[in-house]
Amino acid sequence: MSVFMDLNLSYSSDKSRLHSLIESAAHLGFSTVAINYVFEPTAKKKQEIPAPTPINELIDQLPIVQGRSRPIRVLNRLTVVMSDSSHFRPSSPEYRCFDLLAIQPTTEKLFHAACMMYDVDIICISVTEKLPFFFKRAPVNGAVDRGLVFEVSYSASIRDATMRRYTIANAVSLMDSCKGKNVILSSAAEKPLELRGPYDITNLGLLFGLSDGDAKEAVSSTCRSVILHAETRKSASGIIYTMKSCQQEAPPAAHRLQTEGKHNSTESVRLVGGDSRCAGTLEVELGMNGDQ
Amino acid sequence: MVRVKSRYLLCEVNVSDRSQLLLLDDRAVAAAVKAAVARIHGDYGAALCSIRFNVKYVNAHTGTVFLRFPKRCYRLLWSALPFITSVEACGQKIPCFLNCLHVGGTIRTCQKFLIRYNKQQLHRMLPKCKNKEEEEQIRREILNCSLKGGNKEGFEDGSESEEDEEE
Q: Which residues form the signal peptide (chain A) (predicted)?
């Protein structure tokens, strides 16, 4: 049996609200949730990408998930709302602080680029406005091949009748082109009362044009594959994961195995599979005295 | 004789303030469900909802509700339930949402599930006890709420035990 996940809980600076949101998600039976930070760059000036608050600062004791004996797992996620191609900075060091990286393209060109090129995990579908473009088969298939997923969030449709129409219309037109594969349903809830139980969401998938099996996968196994995809994004071709163990002024792109520049750093290299399944770490001394 | 088939949905009413739960009654829940179905599925939904829809059981203390839907269209009607944001009872609007816990073909299987579920809730509550007496009381309730007697008794057990945990 797979576990349920909700990969979108809106971040708010109000800690008690976030706490009650996580508590309520655990009560409903979600074993993994992600706190979403939205970053919306404007054309004028450069803005700072929000830094994630560490989970243990946010909440001291994680609640136990309903029907299980484990505490809930909380991740950080960044959503970049793009209206121009310069807004996404590939391999930016700020992106590495987040567990999941999502993108919300607003034009057809950006949607195409996001599906085919950008190194992200989730492509959000806008649910608050009528779509300015159609989902074409080619980019959608490209995204499915690369393991990206499309996200439909439902809490806007609970708030308002017009939003409900947009949500259902956009979701159905997405399902036409991706045939129900690689879709996740998430809440984007700001208040605990906007969350819904996993079985209700599965059934809600019926309205969004998903079949029974696909709707169930949209809250469970597809979410799991996104998290694994995000883990491999941090590693070299999905096999080797490095992390810095010494404090040195190295270029931020040092996670690539081909380190550039003049520096000595010890990196512990290990096989990917999460902290729990790590067979052991291997210390590699990288002594590069190149003359670049 | 072929019997008329229905689906029973066991739903939990989630509210932010638990004292408001006591205002719930079956008529209020039925009105909220009917309004939501009419809003989402229009006249067709309202027509389907008027045939054999019924609120079978409401427990105001724990906030559990049994809904009966005709089997052939229960998924359609169920898909309207997430859009319920408030229930109007005793002239008051209670902001809440329904969380479906179980779908059963007979009311008996739902009842069995509810008792098991409530027992689980007690287990969850046990570490949060403030003093020894409370802990002892809950422990006794956990032992009590196994389904030995008839249906009726089981029901009472399920509801009673959950009341204690509210303390």
A: none
- What is the pLDDT at residue B24? 82
Whether residues B97 and A203 touch (CB distance < 8 A) is answered with: no
The answer to whether the predicted template modeling score (pTM) of the entire model surpasses 0.80 is no
Question: What is the reported pLDDT for B87?
Answer: 85
pLDDT in tens, A127-143: 888 877 778 888 888 88
Residue A9: CB partners within 8 Å, gap ≥ 6?
A18, A21, A22, A25, A33, A34, A35, A36, A187, A188, A189
User: CB-CB: which of B16, B75, B99 is closest to A196?
Assistant: B99
Q: Which of B40, B78, B95 sits opposite A193 (nearest CB)?
A: B95
Q: Name chain A contacts of B14, Cβ cutoff 8 Å.
A: 24, 27, 193
Domain boundaries of chain B, sorted by first residue: 6-105, 107-154
Q: How many percent of chain A have pLDDT more than 70? A: 74
What ipTM was assigned to the predicted interfaces of this complex?
0.79
Cα atoms in the Cβ-side hemisphere of radius 13 Å centred on B81:
33
